[in-house]
Design brief:
Length: 69
């Protein structure tokens, strides 16, 4: 499965979501000026990245069910 380029794209998308989430949680935990200025924007980025990741996962599953490898 590691040779499948679509799997690698899905994995990168999931890691991007996790990274954005960590930045958001870190900013929330630290508080202060960064959190006030960027908290909503970072979480909007996370939602967008998560939507893209979900679509890619669904495409990957559909492609694998059709027999593509």
């Amino acid at each position: 499965m590691l040779q499948d380029p679509l799997f690698i794209v899905v994995a990168v998308a999931c890691l991007a979501v996790a990274g954005i989430l960590m930045v958001g949680i870190g900013g929330f935990a630290k508080g202060g000026d960064f959190n006030r200025k960027h908290a909503n924007k970072v979480m909007r980025y996370r939602i967008g990245a998560q939507a893209v990741a979900i679509v890619l996962i669904l495409v990957f599953v559909a492609f694998r069910r059709m027999g593509g490898q």
